[in-house]
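Batch manifest, entry 17 of 40.
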Amino acid sequence: MDVLALLSSISWLAAICFLAGLILVIVEMNIPGFGAAGISGGVLLIIGIILTARNLLEAFVLILLVLLLLGLAMTVVLQSAVKGKLNKSLVLSHSLDKESGYIGVEDLEFFVGKEGRAVTTLRPAGTADFDGVRLDVVSEGEFIQKGTSVIITSVKGRRIVVKEKLRD
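Output type: structure tokens
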């Protein structure tokens, strides 16, 4: 089978389908999103193959050529993603931290030192009320009876550690 003869027999319509399909799939590789460009490009590539291939062997050769071209394009895109312009647009380089004045919704550090009352028996986990705010808490290991005064000693993510408040 002569690949050059196969490629020279491509009609204008099939060539436009191949070109537009390759461009759309490469656009999808560079700008990931919903997939409309990639799906449209894939459909155009399939239409181009159907319009060009006269038998199953020619269709197979065209599929291999399309996959080879897309593989080369993907290699270029991945290289760009690792150290090129694409990396700057896809990878977040800025962060929102406490030093910049940003506090996450789940930041519970401000509760450290607050006093409250155990709503349930802490065995060692349970619920405690701090000025009308109910929180899931964990004791430092001991059981704490319902209604006992507690104080928050530390917060690590969503884990709030309490201990029984010693009476004065």
